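ugh finaly. both done.
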Amino acid sequence: MTLIDRKKELSLFQDFLKSVTKPWLLAIYGLNGLGKTSLLTHFSDLVNTEYQVAFIDFSQKNLCEDYQSIIEVLAECLLPIFPSRKFTEFRARLREITEGQKIIAQNTIIARYNSIINTPKQNINVYLNQEKGREQLEEGREMARAWCQLLASAKKKPLLFLDHWEMLVEHGSMDFCPWMVEDILIKSHAQNPSLKVVLSSDHPPTADGFFGNVLKKNDYLLHVLEPMDREYALAMLTREGLTNGNLQEFIFERVGGNPLLLMLAVDLWREQPDMDWSGLQRELDEHAYLDWLLGRIRQSMADERSLTALSQGVVLKAWKLDMLKAICNRPDLTPDWYRGFISRSIVQDVWNRSGYKQFVRSVREIQLRQLWFQDAQQFHQLHGRALDWFEEKEGYSEVHEPSAG
């Protein structure tokens, strides 16, 4: 995503890093498609050797519900700043926690199950689910305490980037979200005051009670990411080769300064330079514009390989060429084709996973819904093919669950 007209945010981030104590959390929010993920990725590239970076993307569902997954990602990213002895002790403590909680959970459930054996089965199932949630939360808190102790030994300043915070709020449980704020963020900062956190969200994070009620106002800084103004939006279109002034004005009057929508318009123009744009109406919301542009891009794709990759590759949350070839059953996806495909604005890099790509989240969601509603059987077949592929290969195995998205 283009970073034209983001000088204000870059300056804000640099000043944030220079602050010695507070605020220690910077929250950037704004409408979908404004380039928040690209901005965070760019921020991480600017960080000097004074900091060690960890990046958590909450669009990965397991990171919205699994306590240990969060701890593992943090530990993996920040591993270089910990003394080896401390890290070994931390690993041993994690194993001790997980094994110990399994035994406690089994004994507790058996004992309490025996005391309610005459209770209707439905009530027993509800009770067991509640008991399991309580045990998982306690395990999560124990792991968080072990993590905070490890963080206190860090030899460099830790810097956390948390992307798609709104996904955590939407998909995380009532226990998981407060755990992330209180047991991980706040207590991590208490153990290591040099910690800095930058998060992005579609909505102001202070709207969430568990965020705004537990953080003090001088702990965090809120910044709303605005669309680009007309001057910078037209400059971006010109830089991308779309120099027709009338068409520039027409596009901007409709989609405004949303970088994703502008770049999709550029992609469409490249596919079909002489197309009729009159169907692009005024005063639609960003989702309607995204739907319209993406639909026209699909219709105008001259290369069937690209259409297949866009239509079917969305079952993968992250991919390389070999994955797309296998899941889409297209051995004709060549390296030359791949270089052209990943240059499109619908594709972005996966942070800290060398060579992996992913579809922009809003694009992926639209394509998943379309695939599901048009051909649910094919959706399940592609999902199964992806799971089979990952069973044979080691690597990044995130695929979409078989649902409507």
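ok and the 2nd:
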Amino acid sequence: MGLAKATASVIRQFTGGDYGEPALGEVITGESLAEEGLGNPVAFAHTVIDWYALSTGDLLHGTAEVSRAEHNLAFSSAAIARSACEYAQIASWLAEPGVSLEVRIARSAHLYERSVRESRKTLSAEEFAEYESQRANSIGWARRTLSSGQRLARPTDRFKAADPVAGQWHYSHLSDLAHGGLIAVAQTVEMARADNLEEGVLERLWKVLLPCSYTLAMVERLSKLRGRPSGILDELQLVYQNYARLLEAYETELRSR
């Protein structure tokens, strides 16, 4: 649990202003792209990255808390672990080093426009009209800036891209627990009833180590993008590697059931 909390805490070192290169150059160039009433679109893109990165830290810390042995929680830890992985993947996608400014901006625009579309599902026609009117400038900017090639992939595809070998299973297993898949529910409840101490420890450890792996990959991208090397990040990655084989062995066992 200490690795998860330390990883969650270190995220703040890679967010906020005072960027190094290449992020600093991106933001400076973005000043020439600013629109009246909207500001610098590249600075906004970096702010969106920060929002998702900091949210990942919140969720990772929460995963560690609910995975503590004294709580003996299986389902809530799975739901939070899945969310932590998803947020880390989104931040990693936004913070991909080496992409053009147009791509960086288009990705944040896509997320904004997607949020607007999702709001339509929960608001009445009258409420949505008011919602859209209040955000007319920013919605117009997002729709003008969209690029068909820069849409966030589906969660399953994001997990597969992050881990071609086990990513799809990661998402499927965590989702089964989060959404009440009968087989996953039965296996988890019966494992708890069996009171197998070793297996219970491995299950809790797996649900913490998995989001740690996605979060560390995200932080590494932030470090490169913002020009902020960190000895602490290197240490955390070494600690994670000490657990990595255990994680792989337990996954293999789970997938065989």
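summary for the 2nd one i guess: The mean pLDDT is 87.
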